[in-house]
Amino acid sequence: MLTSLYVRHLAVVEEADLAFGPGLTVVSGETGAGKSLLVDALMLLAGSRADSSIVRAGSDRAELAAEFDLVGLPEARDWLQLEELDEDGACQLRRVIRAEGSSRAWINGRPATIGQMGELAALLVEIHGQHEHQALLERAHQMNLLDAYAENETRVAQVRELAQQWRELGVRIRKLSGGEDREHRLELLRHELSELEKWALPAAELAELESSHKRLANASKLTEGITGVVDLLDGDSEFALRSSLGRAHAELNRLAALDDRLAPLLELLDNAQIQLTEAADGLAHYAQDVDLDPDRYAEVDAHLTRLHELSRKHRLHVAELDDKRIALQNELTELENAGDALQRLDTQRAQLQRDYDKAAEALSKSRQAAAKRLGKEVSALMGELGMAGGVLQVTLEASENSDPDPQGRERCELLVSANPGQPPRPLRKVASGGELARISLAIEVATLGKDTIGCMVFDEVDTGIGGAVAEVVGQKLRALGSRCQVLCVTHLPQVAAQGHAHLRVSKHSERGSTQTRIEVLNIEGRRDELARMLGGVEITRETRAHAKKMLEQAQTA
């Protein structure tokens, strides 16, 4: 549930900090006052594209923030935990849009991408805009509505997964039984594998080869350098370290006879002489053992050169060539034993086909049952919404594709008859704009509330209706508010009266600057606003009385 919304420097809004509660909250105001800016703010927090023109003139940036209560929203809590953006059960979305066009986003105070905001917002809020009912004309959207109504999420996921696995096995089968292409692939694999088997090395052997190459390439330098070091340690010169250490030891030994406290230091020199001798002997042996074999160097160099050529050929690092060898060996073995592999794959695919048929049949039965219920429910709602005698039929047509289809065995089509006596025809061909809006609202009332979304937003979906129908729309929205939080932007007093809370948006000009003010109305303010919505410019005593009665009846119903 949306608990608060903060907006600063968004279009004509200077600053607004709003708290929201459960139930139906209505938003009203004069035309052009900026009623839909609250919806715009939520859409921006939901990851919609930001245009720098929405930043208030004279400001360097627009700031938006919203907080949500996650009680009853386990999917949102799990998403935050998975993305490591959870923070003691809190959920805050924040976005800053700069006048030069850049945008930044945060979730619970941590930097986030716009994509992440969109994923999270999809679990928190569902927005129905003024033109969203146009999506109802698309058959894919119609099927999604039916599946949502039937609560088919698990069945649809199972059918989609089985169809995908069936297709992937088909690709493998075609690859193994590829005719001339298969023979060409076998020839290529054998050639590439023979190269890699000859030259590619496991990681440890490759490291040893590179170390040997470095050592052989610098053998002369190593021999010359080590010989010089041995001379410095134990050469014939009186300045050699061993000679100097010997003289120091003899002098300290004489002095130790005069003071026993020098004995430990003399012992240190003894140890130093031993270590110096061992180091000099070890270096001498190393100098004798340095490999100066040019043939061995040429062999190692050629091996490394060939490895780098294969690295470029396969577009892999040298260290990855041995893994490539293993992969090619596995593929070659699989191709050479294609008969057995194909038999296994055919068996697996046949089982997947059976599993798919069973899952698709269960999905079809669920869809067929839900289609009848949805048609009856929407038809009844159409009558309440001023389309008496109107009928909506949810038809399911068998798919022409006989192979496992990720969408199932059927396609959905909404047929409508707006007037008695007319045969139902596809919705996309017969519905006028006003009829489509009301049919859309009827479907939304029938299907919404089936998921776990905590907040639903309607932006003037009541456009084109009025009178008693408007009152019914308000009642339906209020009823929906008993199941989840609903925010509705409206211009109809019949709808506004049904709200559990009421926000008024007004526009003011001060010192040459236009600002939009958003205020929470008390009972008196609600009566005045309803009177304005009923009476227009001139508000009479009768209009106020009508507004009072309308509000009282709506709130006590």
UniProtKB/TrEMBL annotation:
It comes from the Bacteria. Residues 318-369 form a coiled coil. Keywords: ATP-binding, Coiled coil, DNA damage, DNA repair, Nucleotide-binding. Residues 12-509 form the RecF/RecN/SMC N-terminal domain. Transmembrane segments: none annotated. Pfam families: SMC_N (PF02463). May be involved in recombinational repair of damaged DNA. Belongs to the RecN family. This is DNA repair protein RecN.
